[in-house]
């Protein structure tokens, strides 16, 4: 039995002993996606469904999930919005974080970057609100333009964007012991030449084509392929994602990239 499997079994036993419901499915065990899509895209080439490991991302826009049902139906991982800028805490973070953890979902927290606040202030805000939890996924930095902000329409030069990104990543890596993952969109990636960053893993949004079409030559670990997904245990639309590797490699990725 792998160290990850042993940890999952011990965690389940400990939860049972203290009267807390056991995890729905052991952490790292891959469940098949039983999802649908309200507005499905007609994929050409390699489809999202051909990938073995699926997951979701959630924020305050999603009501409380039945995480156990979602886990049994293919939610193997979840990225949960924690913070934005230097003073906003997502009001659903604690609910989603605790529910995902109890259900055996590999969970990670993400920060939505705000271009009118320094990366140092934002990194400290994230650290203040996201406990360093053994087994959590590496933190995620969400880098995209926000056209809906009523107070900040600043769009710095690409060099400044990359420099602020590196500062934020460096602070979080020092605290959590893992290099954060970067989430981004096609226009932001291209405009700011995010491919020039080195030593990072990407979570890429691409809802109308495979990432290889939207991000030529870029390697990726996670792909967000729809924002209109439907998942058992959740109400309304959800963002759905896939992991780039096989079910077998998912176990080794978790073992290597989980926070200790």
What does this structure look like?
This protein has 260 residues and is an alpha/beta fold. The chain has a single domain (31-257), classed as Glycosidases (TIM Barrel). Helix content is 32%, strand content 20%. It has eight helices and ten strands. It has helices at residues 3-17, 67-72, 93-102, 119-129, 158-176, 186-191, 211-214, 247-257, and strands at 36-37, 54-58, 77-84, 88-89, 106-112, 140-143, 181-184, 201-205, 222-230, 238-243. An eight-stranded mixed barrel has the order 2-3-5-6-7-8-9-10. Helix 6 links the parallel strand 7 and strand 8 (201-205). Helix 4 packs parallel to helix 5 (158-176). It is globular, with a radius of gyration of 18 Å. The model is unreliable at 1-21 (pLDDT under 50).
Secondary structure elements and their pairing?
Elements lengths: L2 H15 L18 E2 L16 E5 L8 H6 L4 E8 L3 E2 L3 H10 L3 E7 L6 H11 L10 E4 L14 H19 L4 E4 L1 H6 L9 E5 L5 H4 L7 E9 L7 E6 L3 H11 L3
Parallel strand pairs: 2-3, 3-5, 5-6, 6-7, 7-8, 8-9
Antiparallel strand pairs: 1-9, 2-10, 3-4, 9-10
Helix pairs in contact: 4-5
